[in-house]
Protein 1
Amino acid sequence: MAVFNSLRTDLPLITYETLAKDLIHLFEKQNLTHLPILHNELLVGMLPKESILESTPQDTVASLSYDLERYHVLPNVHWQEALETFGKFDTNILPVTDEKNQYLGYFSLIDFIHLFSETPFLKELGSFIVLERNDIDYSLSEISQIVESNQAKILGAFVSDMTNGKVQITLKIFGGGLSEILQTFRRYGYTIVLQKEDDLYLNQLKENSDYFEKYLTL
């Protein structure tokens, strides 16, 4: 996916001298969890919204610098790494810098949700399967072999849950006989947690995505 095409550059310059009162409105207008703080065009950190809400209007960013969180990505970041960074720092804004830490802009989490919706995992026709097995026993290569031995292809796969020694793997497959694939998984010791045809599952995913996007814009 063309991640760099999602780069945003619509935020004003925020430095150590910026007043807290000027950032409150910006946080509310942009619906962001953090704002990038710059010094001489270099990114020095990300200021969380909570710090501004707990400050006084005349506080400067410099007086809040101990709250700065430091994370960023490069323009050529892979979308999976970017999503991991969003989650790791519990943020909906990801600053982008060059190799010298010069600030270039930012990625928005909502844009990445839209990017993900354009992947074959969601766009192409197919069937969804959620498998479960002991976390020490499952093998992605084995899962792939089972699917392909039944004349089907995997359009996407990811670990969707790991709890109490169990792991759940969500697959989207295309082609082959779904019943035969499910039977083969059971023979290999996998539990079928969920199996749905494309339309129903996609509608549920869309509803969840719409809710998530609505939540992000509150």
Protein 2
Amino acid sequence: MKRIMIVEDEALTALNLKANLQLIGYDIAAIESTGYGAIQKARQLMPDLILMDIRLADDINGIDAMKEIIKFHHIPVIFLTAHSDEETLKDAKVIEPYGYLVKPIDIRTLKATIDIAFYKHEMDKKLRAAQEELKAKNDLLENINKDLYDIAIQLHKVNFEKEKMLIQQSKLASLGEVLSAITHQWRQPLNAIALLVQNLDEIKLENEEDNLKIQNTINETMQQVNFMSLTIEDFKFFIKPSEAIVTFSIKKAISHIINLLQSVYLNSNIIINFTCPEELTARGVLNEFKHAILNIVNNSKDAIISASQRGLLDKMSMGVIDINVTIDEKSNKIISIRDNGGGIQEDILPNIFDCYFSTKGEEKGTGLGLFIVKKIIEEHMNGVIYARNWEKGAEFIIKL
């Protein structure tokens, strides 16, 4: 049975309330006439509801007494008053009471007001419980989100390091091609240096003309040595890991790769044609872009050699790799790399950019080349790359 505490300084009114409450089925927890007494009894007895007179006998009124009571327990209150003026009701609203009863109070109004108060209080308890549960779940969700964010950051770092390793691994896979180019480029200057040194041995220092010959020979020798030194610098720059994002000339970047490889390609009966406006630039890691172009061009070279070996290319015909850079109507830079190597099988065309996918066999291919190219172009440079076949071979399109 619900227990109700009456706080009323008029004894007759208090007794009348007690009788009516008992008639409608409630227990009386206590009857108090002062605000201080109400605070103490509420703390001791913890009633289910308080009927609180606003005007009390001591120097603390019912509103102030309830302010103290709700600090330690949320007990529903119905205020009793003989005054229904605006100022009194405004002060009482601060407590958020569950009802008001204006004296004198009839039993039907008393019962209805208390029933509504208990119902509202029960709904409030459920609402508070739901809010607390929601807050707990929100706190849990925030903690989970924070943990997920931390995990995502760690995964990003791990993936970033993994990508760097893959790019470097792909570069190492290309070293054979680059070293072959350097070896070929060094043969001629080394032979020239050997001849120049022999000439020095034959020159007799008899006059100024002989001194001039020696100086010319030294100058020519140094030119050859400088050429070889630049080749080594190109090689070092190619294999050096780099993370600096810069704006660079597309023409200079691609020309650098062509100059490095062209003599080797000519030995394989392959020529590279290249056209690009001077002013076109791109933004990214320069070394990565060069590596991407090198991988695509090497794929074209391998396709041409394979086509020649299979008799698909006339032995008297040159292998051709055309590299054309243009700009479209939306100011995108379009890099087309096209070969006459017979093309890519249509059934494997959608898979050529997959990691570890290779048509060259384990001995010749790692399956990383085009996978790394796609990562560099699309993830590091915000571009697009795709491949298609044309009449005589394959074409790779890069849009930046």
Protein 3
Amino acid sequence: MNVIERTFAFLGDGANWQGAQGILARTVEHLGITVFAVAIALVIAVPLGLWAGHTRRGGQALLGFTAALRALPALGLLTLLALWFGVNAIPPLVVLVIIAVAPLLAHTLEAVTGIDPDVVDAARAQGMTEGQILRRVEIPLGLPVFMGGLRSAVLQVIATATIAAYINGNNLGRYLFDGLAVRDYPRMLVATLLVAVLAFVVDALMALAQRAVTPVPLRGGSGRGGASKRHRQQKHESALDAANSHTEGAHA
């Protein structure tokens, strides 16, 4: 059999899906380390992004910081951390958190700073405090943009979590490195296919979640040349209506 046939023969063998070393168990571990890393990154990135976006301070510095994080070579950083902390779960977790922080921080900042200033001014003119503006106006209106960052972070971590098996772990990347050690190319292809399918499924689910949190008037893409002036005005009017509704709810 050729490589493709052997790959699908491996996937079609029920024994390869069962047990602690099976595909299902490794998929669960892959998702587990992804969720854990993204959760830690959320705790780090979201408060920083909200503070910088609301106060309009330090935004450029944070964007530069995120650009630097994106430039770090994941495998090289993983190897360096393994030399410092040893072969355990810490090095891959730190690498994955760093990878997730970059898009989360950038999109959180963009979610707040991208809101029409008229919306914020309208909320402030109606007597809302800075904390209320952040909680009831900026966060709800910026949620779709933030969800885009969360979606990007999760996908990047799913893809990069594969290399966690290089140091420590029993996730889907184990097939890749085990196959590489003995030149078992079908096993390596299995790892590639499984991670790709997992990323596709998770991305589809998160796309639905992102659409669900997007107000109906703001849904839909713009034309190839950009949104028209009328479309931008409609978006601004919808945002103002949302801010007013939040304010009315606060006074009720």
